[in-house]
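Thread: "does anyone have the structure for this chain?"

Original post by V.I.:
We have the sequence but no experimental structure in hand. Need at least a predicted one for the grant figures.
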Amino acid sequence: MYDDELVAVLSDFFHADGTSLATPRPDAHHWLPVPLINGRGQFDCNSTHEEVRWCSPVERAEFLVTQGRKYRIRLIGAMSRVGFKFSISHHSLRVVSRQGLELEPFQTNEVALFPGDRYDVIVEASQPIAEYKIRVQITGCDACEPDGTNKQPNYGYISWAAFRYQGAIKMSASEFRLSQTDEQGNPLQSTTYSDHRIAPARGSAPPPSTRTWTLNLTSERFWVENDVAPHRRWFFNGREFSGMMTQTPLLYRVLRGEKFSATEDLLFTANDGEVIDIIFNAQHNQDHPMHLHGYKFWVLGTGKGNYNGDTQFLNLRDPPHIDTINVEGNSWLYLRFVADNPGVWIMHCHLDFHHKEEMAVGFIVAPEKLRSTATLAHVPMCDTYAQLTQKYGFSRDEEPEAGSESNGALGFTAIAFVIVGLFLIGATAGVLFWKQQLETRKRQQQDAEIQPVSDDKRTNDDVVLPTFDEM
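Reply from O.Q.:
Generated one for you, tokens below.
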């Protein structure tokens, strides 16, 4: 089917550090990164913008191919903030896989990826020997109206890499920048995040649902003193998730028997083997790529507005089975998964800024089975975890009392270490004290021996030390 493999890691680079980026700014440029292809991109290092740092000339990324051969290019969406579109000038892309799921192949000339997304495409090097352009462009909708109109049309930054045939003369940077090989001949026809052509090669019907949870996504802006632009917080069903960075990790708290509320904590408890439906209603104008840890889910359908319960819009025959999917602004999304992997699993937005703001929900799967097969001793906690949560103010639960039954094996282990430590400290102090007492007694005896003795009290056993006058 193909002769060789290539890997293209697509990422975004901000000319600023995370602390600066976390501070809202009114200028859109502050938020927009440079697309990188295998760590390389294009940017004007002479820019006078205040955020430009870590900018130096580098060679463009290059993919060297041989005419007549077919290449499987593995596209990895490692972006933190935006989506990308990928294309190669004058070459068609045969889409064969998404997130490890083998697809019914289809042809396109551009593929759209959101953060966390992955595609495999087959490209045939069938053009005349030359150096062609790989084009990666920022895409997405950061402020879309319900009709899809983007109120913030500042997307579109582009970076290029070389798709160069063996035998082609390598162009200089200026020649490559001005070359016309990025002209497509045909208009770009990109895939969409929920493209109807994305169908499994060997699909099957998912099992019927046993439980349904609906998550209504909303947000609100708020101001922090001295900031020049507002912050934003995210809600599911009117609540903020608070379980991601607590003083004690969620898994520990579940293992020690704590109970949680889907309504208050956004922590949903499922029995072993239950078939769970998740319905997202995005009542907000921004896209959110949602990723579920520990599972893959079936994508049953999506559409504009809120889901109205009509099953005719759902694919119950052969839906895609993946782990990350985009919840489009002002739209609904219907997912299904089988809760057969006991644990505490998070489902979060794959935009790093939103993940940091705890835009997430959690699933506690088969807690009784989990507690019967795992103990706290099986999941030792990093020594610095508590220090970090305290430093950044994320402590929202109470520490378990030392020695309480709920601490399990880890609690007894900690107590044992404390007892042993106290014993060693006490023993060391005792030895030092005993040694000091011996030295004190010895000095006292020596002092007593050198006291002057009168002549009439001297015996043959007395040792008289000479005085300075006698020496």
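V.I.: this helps a lot. The chain is about 15% helix and 30% strand.
O.Q.: and The longest strand covers residues 211-222.
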